[in-house]
């Protein structure tokens, strides 16, 4: 089965959560079905869902018998133990011959290359978060044949990127959405030990937060809860944008609901292809509205939706509409406990890393937001200073004059230029032009780049500057680490924030390149295009209350279990941080003995004086590792307390 408009293929891609649902959906008005096998996909939490090996084989054959396609989700991040299972699974899939797998982890590419006569096409999952042309070219060179567009990508951008790359694009057209950039939400992992990038999200985005800013409280009602995607009335615009595959979300939905969705969208596409001039966008739209689980939005298809993206009706705290159950309620971030610290130490003592780190002194690295912080970090002995790419307001991004000013006083410290997590073509062009101009002056004193996305690796590697892989690249296993080192030139890596203790220890042991550990600070656990600051401006306050830990100029999300600061950057993106501070002071010695040589403070949210004291404390601790316990005993948190984050688990 195939559909075409002006010679371009249009595929309606339907979900199926079980084999029984698959057998019904494959005969509905769709061209392809995607589903998960027995492991390594992001819908493993619901008992009885996903297909067995035997069912996968039958489903692929059934699809092909009907002239349709079958795509299999292998879209988890993979830990070290998953790699052996993935090898067996890919060998099986290579025999079954699905039309593609949908993948997130970079280890997928070397795993497939290890197969004899590999015939597994790869589609980049939305969790791979491909969002600029260089990223598209990078994954294309590794074997990706289709891009599942980032949820925040509008149709005009899709159209341009598709035309420039020639790649197939897949776009979500209906179903459950998320307010956070794909694979950039770590909150569930740090609160519950359940990684959202491994399909175990506990939905803290759907809690009933209150918003505070400037000493006033606003009636926001679920400010992070996204409406369901709805593009039924915009089929012409999807086709015009060059979208090949129209993807319905819903592997956890029931059969009758899915059949209604698939047949409605299939009929709409058929009607448009048959008569584009007489096409009625609203025909049968009422059926979809009457059967909605949440209110509808076109999300980012036509630009940033603002408040229109936020769901107010039909919302329940942490509630999953596929099951009707409440998965989580507001939960406090865990405090550091002495017995857990001992467990962390013991796990790190088991690491036997042999990678040429003997005799190398520990180096303190500090991520800063402005010149004053950078100066303070250098004066207190930081060996590496990362200049932020996403700069929190009211500070402005680092420019040439400020960089040269810092370079003049850096001494033997290294000055490393960071970049935004998500970079469009304009931002990549700016960085390339700036650095290209700086080649004649030793890059203004810049010693390296802190790289946050695959496109930046591809675009800027030719400059020859050392490139450090940041934590949001979600390096979860040694094979992904090796790929970043060999194919993109990464000189050092920071593991994913989501790694629980045992997986973290194994990655330190097996990683083929130097590992940097985030040991203190308030790293960003949600990265959003949704602007909560702008949304609050449209509301009337209902009360007054000062922020407890950060300046009133910063917006905070508040529950009865704590309050999380949200910082706004120069481009209006929002960065939600933990309410507590990550703290690795008690086990610096064990990290060092495990082979870690770079220890990072995420310092952007501190005042200059607070950061100065932190840098001094950690520098002294790294100079006398035996005294870490004594240092920790007298440290006082700036925010709501200390936590180990994901190291609390596993």
Present the secondary structure layout.
Layout: E1 3-5, E2 8-15, H1 19-25, E3 32-36, H2 53-65, E4 69-74, H3 80-96, E5 100-103, H4 108-113, E6 122-124, H5 133-142, E7 144-148, H6 155-165, E8 168-175, E9 180-185, H7 187-192, E10 210-213, E11 216-218, E12 228-230, H8 235-240, E13 245-248, H9 255-274, H10 285-290, E14 296-297, H11 338-349, E15 363-368, H12 371-379, E16 384-387, H13 400-407, E17 414-418, H14 425-438, E18 448-451, H15 454-460, E19 467-469, H16 478-488, E20 490-493, H17 501-510, E21 516-521, E22 524-528, H18 532-537, E23 543-544, E24 555-559, E25 562-568, E26 574-577, E27 581-583, H19 588-593, E28 598-602, H20 608-623, H21 628-634, E29 642-643
Parallel strand pairs: 2-3, 2-13, 3-4, 4-5, 5-6, 6-7, 7-8, 8-13, 12-14, 15-16, 15-28, 16-17, 17-18, 18-19, 19-20, 21-28, 27-29
Antiparallel strand pairs: 1-2, 8-12, 9-22, 10-11, 10-24, 11-23, 21-27, 22-26, 24-25, 25-26
Protein name: Peptidase U32
InterPro entries: Peptidase_U32, RNA/ubiquinone_mod_enzymes
Pfam families: Peptidase_U32
Your description of this structure?
- This protein has two domains: 250 residues, TIM Barrel (Alpha-Beta Barrel), CATH 3.20.20.70; 225 residues, Aldolase class I (TIM Barrel, Alpha-Beta Barrel).
- The protein is globular and about 70 Å long.
- With 650 residues, the chain is of the alpha/beta class.
- Helix 5 crosses helix 15 and helix 12 packs parallel to helix 20.
- The longest helix is centred in the middle third of the chain and has 20 residues.
- A ten-stranded mixed β-sheet has the order 20-19-18-17-16-15-28-21-27-29.
- Helix content is 32%, strand content 20%.
- The mean pLDDT is 95.
- This is Peptidase U32.
- It comes from Paenibacillus campinasensis.
């Amino acid at each position: 089965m195939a559909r075409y408009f002006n010679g371009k293929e249009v595929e309606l891609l339907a979900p199926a959560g079980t084999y029984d649902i698959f057998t019904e959906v494959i005969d509905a008005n769709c061209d392809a079905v995607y589903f998960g096998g027995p492991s390594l996909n992001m819908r493993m939490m619901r008992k009885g869902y996903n297909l067995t090996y035997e069912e996968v084989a039958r489903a692929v054959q059934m699809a092909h018998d009907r002239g349709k396609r079958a795509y299999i989700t292998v879209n988890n991040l993979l830990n070290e133990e998953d790699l052996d299972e993935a090898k067996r699974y890919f060998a099986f899939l290579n025999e079954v011959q699905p039309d593609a797998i949908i993948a997130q982890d970079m280890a997928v590419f070397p795993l497939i290359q290890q197969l004899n006569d590999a015939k597994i096409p790869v589609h980049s999952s939305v969790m791979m978060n491909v969002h600029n042309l260089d990223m598209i070219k990078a994954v294309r060179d590794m074997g990706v044949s289709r891009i599942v567009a980032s949820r925040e990508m509008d149709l005009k951008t899709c159209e341009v990127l598709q035309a420039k790359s020639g790649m197939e694009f897949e776009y979500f057209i209906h179903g459950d959405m998320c307010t956070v950039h794909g694979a950039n939400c770590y909150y569930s992992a740090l609160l519950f030990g359940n990684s959202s990038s491994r399909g175990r999200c506990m939905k803290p985005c759907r809690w009933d937060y209150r918003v505070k800013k400037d000493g006033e409280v606003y009636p926001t009602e679920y400010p992070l809860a996204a409406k369901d995607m709805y593009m039924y009335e915009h089929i012409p615009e999807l086709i015009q944008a060059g979208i090949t595959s129209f993807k319905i979300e819903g592997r956890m939905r029931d059969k009758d609901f899915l059949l209604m969705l698939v047949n409605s969208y299939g009929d709409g596409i058929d009607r448009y292809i048959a008569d584009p001039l007489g096409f009625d966008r609203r025909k049968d739209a009422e059926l979809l509205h009457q059967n909605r689980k949440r209110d509808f939005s076109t999300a980012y298809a036509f630009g940033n939706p603002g408040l229109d993206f936020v769901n107010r009706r039909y919302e329940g705290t942490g509630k999953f509409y596929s099951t009707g159950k409440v998965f989580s309620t507001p939960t406090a971030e865990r405090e550091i406990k002495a017995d857990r610290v001992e467990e962390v130490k013991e796990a790190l003592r088991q690491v036997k890393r042999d990678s040429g780190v003997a005799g190398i002194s520990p180096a303190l690295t500090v991520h800063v937001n402005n010149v004053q912080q950078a100066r303070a970090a250098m004066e207190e002995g930081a060996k590496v200073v990362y200049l932020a790419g996403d700069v929190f307001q009211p500070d402005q991004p680092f420019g040439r004059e400020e960089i040269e000013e810092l370079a003049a006083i850096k001494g033997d410290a290294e000055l490393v230029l960071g970049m935004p997590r998500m970079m469009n073509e304009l931002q990549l062009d700016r960085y390339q032009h700036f650095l290209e101009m700086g080649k004649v002056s030793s890059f203004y004193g810049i010693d390296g780049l802190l790289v946050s996305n695959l496109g930046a690796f591809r675009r800027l590697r030719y400059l020859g500057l050392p490139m450090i892989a940041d934590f949001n690249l979600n390096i979860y296993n040694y094979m992904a680490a090796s790929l970043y080192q060999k194919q993109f030139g990464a000189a050092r890596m920071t593991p994913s924030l989501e790694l629980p203790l045992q997986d973290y220890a194994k990655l330190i042991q097996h990683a083929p390149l130097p590992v940097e550990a985030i040991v203190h600070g308030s790293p960003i656990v949600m990265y959003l295009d949704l602007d909560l600051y702008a949304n609050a401006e449209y509301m009337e306050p209902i009360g007054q209350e000062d922020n407890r830990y950060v300046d009133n100029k910063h917006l905070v999300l508040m529950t009865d279990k704590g309050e999380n600061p949200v910082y706004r950057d120069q481009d209006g993106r929002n960065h939600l941080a933990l309410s507590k501070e990550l703290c690795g002071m008690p086990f610096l010695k064990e990290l060092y003995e495990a082979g870690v040589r770079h220890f990072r403070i995420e310092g952007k949210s501190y005042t200059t004086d607070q950061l100065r004291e932190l840098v001094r404390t950690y520098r002294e601790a790294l100079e006398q590792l035996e005294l870490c316990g004594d240092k920790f005993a007298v440290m006082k948190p700036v925010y709501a307390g200390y936590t180990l984050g994901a190291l609390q688990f596993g």
